[in-house]
Amino acid sequence: MFVHATTPKRGDSIGILLYNPILNVYLNKNMAAQFAYSHGFVDEHLWNDFKANCCKGCVDPSNCDINFLRGECRYKTVGIVDVLMSQRVYPFDIYRDCPVAQENLEPGEPCLYISGAKFIYDYLNQEQVQKALHIQLMNNEWKICSGIGNYLYHTEYDDISPILAGLLKEKIRIMIFNGDTDALNIYLTAQKIVENLGQKLTAPKQPWLINGQIGGFKTEHGKLLTFATVRGQGQLIHLYAAEIAEYILNKFLNNLPL
Question: Which PANTHER family is this protein grouped with (predicted)?
């Protein structure tokens, strides 16, 4: 991404394609509560109690920002979203079994291990690749879920919607797509961000098809901005539904509607 460019050259790129992004960290935390409830993970009594006594009857970030709740309400928030991060549910794809079944799992940072992926390690440990990706070089081998990498990682932006708005102003085409069963990078977050970017809605939500079946749902905001979900897929669409990922990519590269 050329997010640091103030006046991107249109000849350098046809646009940007964002795949399961977290566009706003704080909004994503809010959407986690709605995501957990809408997928049947939250007791109805707890939800109604939380809605009435912590959110004045409406669990929506415009009315009730869970990032700022304190005391008993903060405790209830943890009860609502805890199952998504408990490692008893596969947070990358909530309807898929965990890759390694274990008993007595303790809560912790979710992490994905991919067996037989030595080529990923070899590629990402090349110095020229790390430089191209603007990765802080370390005297350590890169490993997936590395504690060192997690410690050194610096979050520069909590909210990238202003960057997206700037790209749209420069007539840079943007497509965002999210798997609808990803509990970490929640599609509801991206959907709300896209709606608030100030682009006129030209095609309300409708299904898009692949092989005669519904692949997900899309909304279009003029010729520059498209948001789409991928039905029944989580964060690893490229791994579990490579045909769909390739289909979306080809549509984007050829500037064709999904």
Answer: SERINE CARBOXYPEPTIDASE CTSA-1.1, SERINE PROTEASE FAMILY S10 SERINE CARBOXYPEPTIDASE
Instruction: Give, for 226, the enclosing helix (H) or strand (E).
Output: strand 225-230
Averaged confidence pLDDT in the chain: 85
Range 241-249, long-range pairs (CB < 8 A, 24+ positions): 243/210, 244/210, 244/215, 245/19, 247/210, 247/215, 248/17, 248/175, 248/177, 249/17
| Residue 26 to residues 9, 13, 44, Cα–Cα distance (Å) | 32, 30, 24
Q: Tell me, what's the pLDDT at 85?
A: 76
Cβ density class 74-107: b for 16+ within 10 Å, e for less: eebbeebbebbbebebbbbbbeeeeeeeeeeeee
Strand pairing partners for 208? 216
- Taking only the tens place, the pLDDT of each residue in 7-60 is 445 545 579 999 999 999 999 999 999 999 999 999 999 999 999 999 999 999
Q: Cβ contacts of residue 3 below 8 Å, gap of 6+?
A: 160, 163, 167
3-class state of residue 43 by DSSP: coil
pLDDT digits 0-9 by tens, 194-248: 999 999 999 999 999 999 999 999 999 999 999 999 999 999 898 889 999 999 9
* Amino acid at the residue 162: P
What domains sit in the chain, N to C, each tagged with a CATH number?
Answer: 10-23+159-253 (3.40.50.11320), 25-85 (no CATH), 118-151 (no CATH)
* Alpha carbon distance, N-terminus to C-terminus of the chain: 22
Nearest residue to 4 via CA among 135, 150, 134, 111: 134
Could you tell me which residues are beta bridge partners of residue 178?
Answer: 229
* Partners of 24 in beta bridges: 159
Per-residue pLDDT, averaged over 120-138, amounts to 81
